[in-house]
Design a protein that fits this description.
This protein has about 130 residues and is mainly α. The chain has one domain. The chain is built from four helices and no strands. Helix 2 packs antiparallel against helix 3 and helix 3 packs antiparallel against helix 4. The longest helix is centred in the N-terminal third of the chain and has 27 residues.
């Protein structure tokens, strides 16, 4: 479990870097906050799913088993993210608003990833291997 948590943290930092770079680039281009935050979120999510599924959780099941749950988790995270940025941005710098939003999303995503998204009924938190066709 310690190795999985370490990999989760590495992917999280990479995701954060992508999110911040794209968001700040969009801000510099003068895009409305809804647009640059959304583009950043979508970019980060795409990389995050691929790395979480393949490297952190080593989920060998078909993507159809985790992708719908991941989409729900990300939708919740997107709403939390956008609400936090839209609420905080008028009061603090955009960087602070983005970082607070990221922390809230990390907490939500970690809870859902480890307890619901990448599990297949295995109490130890590891994905079961895909069933073999005969």
């Amino acid at each position: 479990m310690a190795a999985k948590l370490a990999r989760y943290a590495v992917v999280g930092f990479l995701t954060l870097a992508i999110y911040m770079i794209v968001a700040k680039a969009g801000e510099r281009l003068g895009l409305p906050s809804t647009w640059h935050v959304s583009l950043a979120f979508i970019s980060a999510v795409a990389v995050n799913y691929l790395l979480q599924r393949s490297w952190v959780f080593a989920d060998s099941r078909p993507a159809a088993s985790s992708l719908p749950k991941y989409a729900v988790m990300i939708s919740v995270g997107y709403i939390v993210n956008l609400a936090a940025v839209e609420t905080l941005a008028p009061r603090v710098t955009m960087t602070v608003a983005l970082l607070v939003a990221v922390v809230l999303v990390i907490i939500s995503n970690a809870l859902l990833s480890f307890t619901w998204v990448f599990l297949n009924g295995d109490a130890k938190g590891t994905a079961r291997p895909a069933l073999k066709k005969r």
